[in-house]
Design goal:
about 65% helix; two-stranded antiparallel ribbon; mainly alpha; Vanadium-containing Chloroperoxidase, domain 1; disordered C terminus; 11 helices; disordered N terminus
């Protein structure tokens, strides 16, 4: 009887090749879209839809009033419009990630990665809906719904909330609200565009940070007598 000894496959041969960083990032973004379409998004989508339906009859009036407001123009003109630009939000996220990796700061790199992920998801979703709906803007331009500036800033604010709790949530959401108001003042969007953009941004930010379990502050649109607002809820990180 002749016996042949065959070499045993090494552990490296047994293990499947690990996906590269680009493929891993794209797979993560794909899972983010699945998360946005899950049943967990229904409460926020329902609240946003309710507020939008309530505000819809006053869409043109609210935008006209905001565009004619000298106070809002003085307060929001310039910086608020610039801060909401997609290239600035995405560039800031990328710069944060690169700086964190270069400095060996894993927390900064994770923040930058989540911001970049949230901005990409919010941007793709916004553009897709814009072309599907093709709503005319108050100033006559096309693709008004939803507001991309609002989606981007609320996505960033939600990521800041997830990473830093209320200390990051309060200033970030305040800036998002001001930037959203600037879109009305600039006569570029209706109020329902802004409400939809906020919902898209919050969902994108949540999807990008689903791995973070200690979020203590959450935001959602609510109906108030005579209008709407953003509601913040605070809970313990252990809940």
């Amino acid at each position: 009887m002749v016996m042949l000894a065959l070499p045993r496959p090494s552990a490296a041969q047994d293990a499947a090749p690990q996906p590269g960083p680009v493929r891993k990032f794209l797979e993560t973004v794909g899972s983010d879209f699945k998360s946005m379409a899950s049943s967990e998004s229904l409460p926020l989508l329902t609240a946003a839809a309710a507020v939008a339906l309530f505000v819809a009859p006053f869409d043109e009036t609210l935008t006209y009033s905001a565009s004619c407001s000298t106070f809002l123009k003085t307060t929001l003109d310039g910086w608020a419009r610039t801060m909401g630009q997609e290239w600035l939000l995405g560039g800031g996220a990328l710069a944060t990630y690169v700086a964190g990796r270069a400095a060996g700061n894993t927390r900064m790199a994770a923040l930058g990665g989540d911001l970049l992920e949230a901005e990409l998801v919010a941007g793709i979703t916004t553009v897709a809906v814009k072309y599907a709906v093709n709503r005319q803007r108050p100033d006559g331009e096309a693709r008004s719904f939803p507001s991309g500036h609002t989606a981007g800033t609320f996505a960033a604010a939600t990521v800041m909330q997830r990473h830093f709790g209320w200390k990051g949530a309060v200033p970030a959401y305040a800036a998002a609200v001001l930037i959203s108001g600037a879109r009305l003042q600039a006569n570029s969007h209706f109020s329902t565009d802004v409400i939809a953009g906020a919902a898209v941004g919050i969902l994108a930010g949540r999807a990008a940070t689903v791995k973070i379990a200690g979020a203590r502050v959450s935001a959602s649109p609510v109906i108030l007598p005579g209008g709407g607002a953003v509601s913040f809820s605070i809970r313990s990180a252990r809940e």
